Amino acid sequence: MIAASAQRLRSTYFFNEISAEIESCKQLDNKYKVFRSEDDFDITPNIIRSLYESDIVICDLSGIQPNPNVMYELGVRLSLTNKPVILIKQQFEKSKDPFDIAFFHRELYNPKQPKKIIKYIIKKIKKFELGEEEFVSPIYNALQASPSIIIHFKKRSAISILKGLNSGLQGTKENIRMVLKKKGFYDQKLKNIPGKGNFIFRPRQFPGLSAYLTNYPLTELFPERITNEVDIIILNFYMKYFCSDLYWQEGYCTNSSKFIEDAQNIFDIVEILIKAIPDCERPDIMANIQENISIICKNNS
After folding, report:
1. Beta carbons of 35 and 89 less than 8 angstroms apart
2. Residue 93 half-sphere exposure, CB side, CA atoms within 13 Å?
3. Rounded CA gap, 115 and 121, in Å?
4. Which of 60, 67, 170, 273 stands 20 to 30 A from 199 (CA)?
5. Are 12 and 67 in contact (CB under 8 A)?
6. With left for phi above 0 and alpha for psi between -120 and 50, is residue 38 left, alpha or beta?
């Protein structure tokens, strides 16, 4: 099976010329079915599967700038497999080569002379069949040789999201403390806070909380039991304090002090997670995290 991913190859005449010659070619050991990728930028699971399963992918990089869809599909293919990719490009004075794939050979062609490029493509396919030529994707090889690269980026992303969460928690706590202090209802030990105050205060949802609930950054880094427990704690915090005005409408100062306590609990848990992420593969570290989270939750239940 051969996937043709290109702007020029979508020209009915040009595509038909190439596909007909390849599918009927008796020089090749295998019989191929040629199909085109979609014009749409919607990279569906079917397209990704086809890019992976196709024996060969032909990418046409023609144009002053290569078609973004083609470049995206090429990137997907290079990330998924070492199976061959053939790059072709129309001869055009103003066209530019993308610097990030400059190390790949691109065969130039004249669309008015399709026989020449067809001959080139069939010759390349034959070499792949005979093992005379091997295609190597540097992207695929890098990912396979160093799976830790993916984990490394997941760790960096998780730390960034968790730091954003704690920054928002800290800022929101300080805002509430400031309001309570101005009203004369607050001291550092959270004592002497009357049941009702003469104000209504509701904290705004902050970006760090939204980022956590959108990405759930602990997934695939921590054991499921830890991930689920922390996710539930943070989700319950969001639902209690940010989903409705009802909690804040009565104007109780103790509501604000409870928010500060819960926010501090999450802050402490997140600090533990941030410190543990670099060594999250170690079972002993995970056991300590589970124990510390349980202690924090128990002391503040």
Report:
1. no
2. 0
3. 10
4. 170
5. no
6. beta
* Token output for 47: 């397209």
Question: If you compute the radius of gyration of the chain from its CA atoms, what whole number of angstroms results?
Answer: 29
Helices 138-145 and 68-80 cross at an angle (nearest 10°) of 40
With contact defined as beta carbons under 8 Å apart, do 23 and 31 qualify?
yes
Around 226, how many Cα atoms within 13 Å sit in the side-chain half-sphere?
24
Bridge partners, residue 109, by sequence: 90
Residue with tokens 């043709």: 4
The span from the CA of 4 to the CA of 18, in Å, is: 10
Q: At 59, is the secondary structure helix, strand, or coil? A: strand
Q: Rounded to an integer, what distance in angstroms lies between the CA atom of residue 75 and that of residue 6?
A: 13
Output the pLDDT for position 278: 92
Residue type, position 254, single letter: T
| Mean pLDDT along residues 42-65 | 80
Question: Rounded CA gap, 86 and 108, in Å?
Answer: 12
Nearest Cα neighbor of 237 from 203, 193, 271 is 203
Is the pTM here over 0.90, yes or no?
no
Backbone phi and psi for residue 216, each to the nearest 5 degrees, phi listed first = 40, 70
| Spatial distance between the Cα atoms of 109 and 181, rounded to a whole number of angstroms | 75
Buried-state track 247-260, b at ≥16 Cβ within 10 A, e below 16: bbeeebbebbbebb
Of 40, 37, 39, 68, nearest in space to 53 by CA = 37
Residue type, 132: E
> Six-digit token pair at 130?
């005979």
Q: What is the pLDDT of residue 233?
A: 94
Give the pLDDT confidence of 142-191 residue by residue, as tens digits. 877 776 777 888 898 899 999 999 999 999 988 887 877 776 665 554 44
